[in-house]
Amino acid sequence: MPTYNPPLRDMQFVMHEVLNVVDDFKQIPKYAEMDVETINAVLEEGGKFATEVIFPLNIPGDAEGCTIDQTTHAVTTPKGFKEAYKTYVEGGWAALGCDPEFGGQGLPLVVNSMFYEMLNSANQAWTMYPGLTHGAYHALHTYGTPEQQQTYLHKMTSGEWTGTMCLTEPHCGTDLGLMRTKAEPQADGTYKITGNKIFISAGEHDMADNIIHLVLARLTDAPPGIKGVSLFVVPKFNVNKDGSLGSRNGIYCGGLEHKMGIKANATAQIVLDGAVGTLIGQPNKGMQGMFVMMNSARLGVGNQSLGLTEVAYQNALAYAKDRLQMRSLTGPKAKDKPADPIIVHPDVRKMLLTAKAYAEGGRMLQAYCAMLLEKEHGHPDEKVRTESGELIAMLTPIAKAFLTDNGHIATNACMQVFGGHGFIKEWGMEQFVRDNRINMIYEGTNTIQSLDLLGRKILGNNGATLKKFGKLVGQLVEEEGVNEKMAEFITPIAILGDQMTKFTTEIGFKGFQNPDEVGAAAVDYLRVAGHLVFGYFWARMAQVALREISAAEKEGRPADPFYGAKLQTARFYFGKLFPETATLMRTARAGSKVLMDTDLALA
Amino acid sequence: MPTYNPPLRDMQFVMHEVLNVVDDFKQIPKYAEMDVETINAVLEEGGKFATEVIFPLNIPGDAEGCTIDQTTHAVTTPKGFKEAYKTYVEGGWAALGCDPEFGGQGLPLVVNSMFYEMLNSANQAWTMYPGLTHGAYHALHTYGTPEQQQTYLHKMTSGEWTGTMCLTEPHCGTDLGLMRTKAEPQADGTYKITGNKIFISAGEHDMADNIIHLVLARLTDAPPGIKGVSLFVVPKFNVNKDGSLGSRNGIYCGGLEHKMGIKANATAQIVLDGAVGTLIGQPNKGMQGMFVMMNSARLGVGNQSLGLTEVAYQNALAYAKDRLQMRSLTGPKAKDKPADPIIVHPDVRKMLLTAKAYAEGGRMLQAYCAMLLEKEHGHPDEKVRTESGELIAMLTPIAKAFLTDNGHIATNACMQVFGGHGFIKEWGMEQFVRDNRINMIYEGTNTIQSLDLLGRKILGNNGATLKKFGKLVGQLVEEEGVNEKMAEFITPIAILGDQMTKFTTEIGFKGFQNPDEVGAAAVDYLRVAGHLVFGYFWARMAQVALREISAAEKEGRPADPFYGAKLQTARFYFGKLFPETATLMRTARAGSKVLMDTDLALA
Q1: Which of A268, A293, A286, A295 is CA-nearest to residue A211?
Q2: Smallest Cβ distance to A419: which of B441, B514, B579?
Q3: Do the chains contact at A329 and B600, CB–CB below 8 Å?
Q4: What is the pLDDT of residue A384?
Q5: Residue A214 forms beta bridges with which residues?
Q6: Minimal C-alpha gap between B338 and chain A (Å)
Q7: How far apart are CA A330 and CA B596, in angstroms?
Q8: Residues 331-350, chain B: which have Cβ within 8 Å of A?
Q9: Which of B87, B279, B326, B482 has a 20 to 30 Å separation from A142 between CA atoms?
Q10: What is the CATH number of the domain that holds B403?
Q11: What residue of B is the nearest CA neighbor of A522?
């Protein structure tokens, strides 16, 4: 059975030593009083909830899965899921990052994000039930009418009701313009909605009193394509004026999918049979609200893989220290034992450190993104708001695709550390691999993320946002360029930063002549950009670590070994993972011809 | 539901157009009469068996799995497995590559290997029941006494009895020197064997009348470690002098593992409770026989991933042509449809071609290895025998690790082509990923393969074998260096060949001072070597394709589009996959320090 320890020390390092989030909060009025102690205390408690309440349900939930009663359309979640959710609601966890106006605790997103990292480590499938609520909450909070907000947001904040995003249909996933679900306007201002949705995570369950579905559909007179899609709120139970639950609405679960992973989360086929809904925002502008949900969900998916990377790492590390097999290549290390623990082997270390470096880099990126979102929405300086908005737009597809691809690499590496035992269910490692696998697909496949990044976020404004991130890298290079100890961390990002500029211009130029060049380079490009971002954060983490070690030296006291560990992991990252960029730039430059001139090969 | 079409045309290309196996057979007395027609006819029939008999059992077998009756220790395989096996035995398929002396058909290994590729595409879990027999057969055929051979080989050849390899114990997988299973000599020359084995594939089942276990154990007076391990044959049912089945032997299944994949294959915990066995080969020399089984099994595991890569590719290709979603970046292609088929997108093509290039390269390597084995054992010229033996020893870890890692990349890419549907069991794609995952682990993890390659097979003889392979590359470069049309295929392998020489010397030198340098470089090194081998084969395939296209041109007839497809795939391979070597050499050169100086990080 796997174990899990919330990485609180590393979270504190990221927030308080690298990003100094409390300094930022001082400039955001609603967080002016936020302090280090409160943040740490909340996360400590949150870690206990994750570890004690939902982690023990992870393997049993996978084995049991969800079941549907085909007569009543009721879905039963695995044993213990409902009770754990009750504990979650009673503990006030659902309200953590929500608006106090609707009963929320108003804690910063970075705290909620780290709380969710722990939930994801403990049980991704369970976490998706409350997790999906956040996207629906944000869309209603941003575009809902005051009446809709009053009707729904209090109960979604408390967690008594959960939410979903109903986008996909059997014939359209990526291409929502093909959508067929219809919304007919009624005399009372509501709409009757009819259609079939699939792949609706947490789409039906027994954990909450009501489920608030956010549904994309076409008005009867809508123009074709993506410009004719509107967003509706469609509750499972209609809500009476007094807030009590009314009649059962015509939206139900037609079946559950049988999946590779996240088996304990109900992936529902949702049938809308004249369901009553109300419009969110403007007619035919449904994609606006959809993107509010989607951007939140994309960061959330990156966070899922971060959680899985961390928990996989912790267990692989424990196993590598415990499992005795063969001797070190440089001679016996554990002479009193029949063999050495496998952690003495270089490649075992490589697998472990891959997961560690990706987890810690991912944690930095998630926290940084959460802070950008706060600044985008709450900073008094408009310039900061705009620039934060641009940066988060660029970093979101990276946080989604790079973190989930890294999660795939890391969970597989950690499973591999276990040898044959990694393949056996009881050890729990293969479940991390299976659960992570969906993260590379849903909320926009990683190919879609790469096209969003390169096509829209980078080339779409002629590299202006990339230059802004490049400035941050440049500042660090400037700051630390003369520091000999930092050279090993600064040189690679300085070089890659320069290469990226050239590389981007080159692709932009080729893409101008042939758009397939953008499509051919995008996936490679995203990983290069991911390494530039991770390289930057690893350099910043090394900077803090070196500063602390040097301060300890000056004061004649031993430095906290945490900082030495950071430096070692940073060195590993730059030595063994970052050089992936060499190949990625070559394969991107190999262009589109070897892909597109292949009609005979793909006949 | 997935589909499968045996890639007969490509198999014929590999055998008859690139390798010209019949020419080689003319020099091997036992195959002197072998002709193209016989080989093709056997494979055509074999393809029908795979497609019609076992492919339909693949998804149901995964869903049902194996069950054990804890009272009788009997294992029941999924519905239809037993009947399919009966068809297999009755069709004479078990005897295909076996020695005519014991009732075998004496067909060349390359035919058996391609037959098995198709079986693996159709149903890896089922295929492991007959597949495991081959290793046991080889060990008995090589080291068994005439009596053992008479007792067991006829029925194993016919397939009436299957075989296993009982190596692993709970505390020892890689490190067989830690083995505890004991063998006590008896007055009648037999041994009483007692111990616990785990992870025994096809270890117990209801498909055959008897199961012939090959068991590693220690004699009571054995020296410690790997030099005190002996090999025994331990039948499930003792065999009477007349060949009939006697009493039930004290070897039984104590339990079945719950696994990520190959769920329809019984992965058995095997209890030996004073089981009667006879010694194979010399006392304490069990590893010799073990390696006969293991080398055969390692090529077999590579073949499993080849099969999965091929079938995953075929299904992803069909889906990509069928699924309509978004428009091509260069403007609509299927104007009469609501969207273009997703095959218009560059990255979808990249995912498909990755699988195709790895499948076709893998098929070349498997066939080449099969021919080397024939030459090693059957060529009249001793020099050819020795050199073939050296080459196959070097290529075996590459065939195992490179093909299974490629299978991981390819099956995941093909699953990704399906978007959300790839995650759903009914489509069958996620099963290919799960089934493939064990291939990177068993029969020696891929890390172990890399240490075997670099430490033993390359540095162990100061690069002599690598030089021999380098000569083959050199010959091709010499032959085609002046052919302008071949430059795009020849230049990269010429460069990589030179780099490999330097790279190997460098690691050898560093490893001499610090053995961890070998361990730190080995996994990267194996993939570089894999690309040198694949690059060589892709160049040879391109050579044949160009020759055929040019012949057609001269004769004024259209060339078979098969050759154009080969060239396009070769160009893709060199453009998008081969450049991985750039990063691999960098990360290998980053050395062992960033891995080993990490005690704080891995505390």
Answers
A1: A268
A2: B441
A3: no
A4: 97
A5: A165, A233
A6: 7
A7: 11
A8: 338-339, 343, 345-350
A9: B326
A10: 1.20.140.10
A11: B347
Does B118 fall in a domain?
A: no
Residues 49-78 of B with CB under 8 A from A: none
For residue A62, give how far its alpha carbon lies from the nearest alpha carbon of chain B (Å): 12
Strand partners, A166: A215
A420–B168 CB contact, under 8 Å:
yes
Predicted local confidence at residue B388, as pLDDT? 97
* Cβ–Cβ below 8 Å for A425 and B258: yes
Instruction: Tell whether A247 is covered by a domain.
Output: no
B398-421 pLDDT per residue, tens = 999 999 999 999 999 999 999 999
Q: Strand ranges (DSSP E) for B494-559?
A: none
Q: According to the 3-state scheme, what is the secondary structure of B564-598?
A: HHHHHHHHHHHHHHCCHHHHHHHHHHCCCHHHHCC
Which of B458, B477, B493 is where one domain is finished?
Answer: B458
Position B481 scores a pLDDT of 84
Minimal CA–CA distance to A433: which of B441, B248, B191, B193? B441
Q: Which tokens sit at B589?
A: 């050169």
> What integer best gives the mean pLDDT of chain B?
97
Query: Which range marks the domain in which residue A551 is found?
Result: 459-596
What are the tokens at A268? 């529902």
Length of chain B in terms of residues written? 603
Q: Is residue B351 part of a domain?
A: yes
Tell me, yes or no, whether B321 and B370 share the same domain: yes
Q: Is B106 left (phi over 0), alpha (psi -120 to 50) or beta?
A: left
Q: Are both A437 and A571 inside the same structural domain?
A: no
* Residues A329 and A426 placed together within one structural domain of the fold: yes
Residues A294 and A358 in one domain: yes
Residue A270 pLDDT level (bands cut at 50, 70, 90): very high
On whether both A448 and A463 belong to a single domain, the answer is: no
- Report yes or no: B419 and A172 within 8 Å, Cβ to Cβ: no
Q: What per-residue confidence (pLDDT) applies to B335?
A: 97
Last residue of a domain, one of B458, B485, B515: B458
pLDDT at B47: 98
Q: B276 phi and psi, to 5 degrees?
A: -90, 125
The string of pLDDT tens digits covering residues A444-455 is: 999 999 999 999
Comparing CB atoms, the residue among B168, B419, B438 nearest residue A174 is: B419
| Residue-wise pLDDT tens digits, A42-61 | 999 999 999 999 999 999 99
Closest CA to B91 of B47, B143, B56, B36: B47
CA–CA gap between residue A510 and residue A513 (Å, rounded): 5
Mapping DSSP onto H, E and C, the string for A8-28 reads HHHHHHHHHHHCCHHHHHHCC
Does the CB of A187 have a partner CB in chain B at under 8 Å?
no
Catalytic residue numbers of B? 443
A573-587 pLDDT, tens digit each: 999 999 999 999 999
Q: Does B17 touch chain A (CB under 8 A)?
A: no
Is A32 in the B-facing interface, judged by CB distances under 8 Å? no
- Cross-chain Cβ contact B329/A516 below 8 Å: yes
Are B565 and A339 within 8 A, CB to CB?
no
pLDDT at A481 over 90: no
Of A174, A587, A602, the CB nearest to B325: A174
- Please say if the pLDDT value at position A242 is more than 90: yes
Domain count, chain A: 2
Shared domain for A296 and A434, answered yes or no, is: yes
Same domain, A320 and A400: yes
Q: Which residues contact B601 (CB under 8 A, 6 or more apart)?
A: A353, A356, A564, A565, A566, A568, A569, A572
- pLDDT-derived band of residue B188, with 50, 70 and 90 as boundaries? very high
B525 occurs within a structural domain: yes
**Which A residues in the span 549-588 are in contact with B, Cβ-Cβ below 8 Å?**
561, 564-566, 568-569, 571-572, 574-577, 579-584, 586-587
Residues of A with catalytic roles: 443
